[in-house]
Amino acid sequence: MSQKTAVTPPAHTVPPARFSHGVRKGHILQVAGQVGFLPAVPGEPPAVAGPSLREQAVQTLRNVESVLTEAGASWDDVMMLRVYLTDVAHFAEMNAVYDEYLADVAVPPARTTVYVGLPEGLLVEIDALAVLD
Amino acid sequence: MSQKTAVTPPAHTVPPARFSHGVRKGHILQVAGQVGFLPAVPGEPPAVAGPSLREQAVQTLRNVESVLTEAGASWDDVMMLRVYLTDVAHFAEMNAVYDEYLADVAVPPARTTVYVGLPEGLLVEIDALAVLD
Amino acid sequence: MSQKTAVTPPAHTVPPARFSHGVRKGHILQVAGQVGFLPAVPGEPPAVAGPSLREQAVQTLRNVESVLTEAGASWDDVMMLRVYLTDVAHFAEMNAVYDEYLADVAVPPARTTVYVGLPEGLLVEIDALAVLD
């Protein structure tokens, strides 16, 4: 079994606590819950991509992808996505964004979608489990 | 590492977005969030097993089992179940249904149960992580 | 692939349904959702460490750790923590407790934090996925 390593995309915001954006050990890659934060600007607090579900969902998927890429993985390696929304009314638009974003993934991952509370201003959070070759 | 493959029980409803009901890669099998939908009827929208927690919980567990079976796995391979309920008042009945359903599993899986929002009419969602021999 | 085994810390309360506090199979260890229950007292119902987020969070992390230890694992093996809180106002204190508790973990795990409902009196639940050497 290879060593556990942190996966930290260079443009990601610093986590608000002692956790890693991604962790890899052996074939397993776990991506932490990502939200719609834009690439970090040094000295500035994290900024959300926009107030809409669409803006946040696209940026959240980009942030998941950045962790995958940094780990040498791709969407094709993703086994599971957990999608946390705050409003059932966002389900259709989330799925539209999601289907566009994952259009080229040959074997789509499994997914669970539930409706929870998130910090103010955030409409979506997504984490991922991947198994690499 | 073997290839990633989708696991699709033939009677399952078509997912509302680009995700798979199950995904297997190597020893890992991830089952997507299942709800109490009855076997699909061609040309009809998904139909819930009934309005009660019991009806939906039984059908949800059956749907998880269908994915396990389709992947050549069984409850004995399940490491983790995530149970999403909408009402704390359903906890006791969920556990009663669950204990009956898993009565013969030699080593019960780990489990987390939390209370979230689900689309209207749905009272329970369950996903599963399995490790196959 | 080694056999699936239950991991049951001796002082843990008995689960309210047919699930295991931890399950190990091969390199994978899954820790069930832990809450702030004190070590079990025979003949008594489970007792929460206290009414505050801090008391419950510390005890919850101890309970996760007990499962890790019982399985021969440590925080260094943890890939993912799922933190379920009931109130966004608890986020900062949760992070303070968490950062103290995990101060010595060389590669912090990934984490997702969401806000859900929990049974009355419980403010935090945490589960964990670990990959052992």
UniProtKB/TrEMBL annotation, chains A, B, C:
<dbReference type="Pfam" id="PF01042">
    <property type="entry name" value="Ribonuc_L-PSP"/>
</dbReference>
<dbReference type="GO" id="GO:0005829">
    <property type="term" value="C:cytosol"/>
</dbReference>
<dbReference type="InterPro" id="IPR035959">
    <property type="entry name" value="RutC-like_sf"/>
</dbReference>
<protein>
    <submittedName>
        <fullName>Reactive intermediate/imine deaminase</fullName>
    </submittedName>
</protein>
<dbReference type="InterPro" id="IPR006175">
    <property type="entry name" value="YjgF/YER057c/UK114"/>
</dbReference>
<dbReference type="GO" id="GO:0019239">
    <property type="term" value="F:deaminase activity"/>
</dbReference>
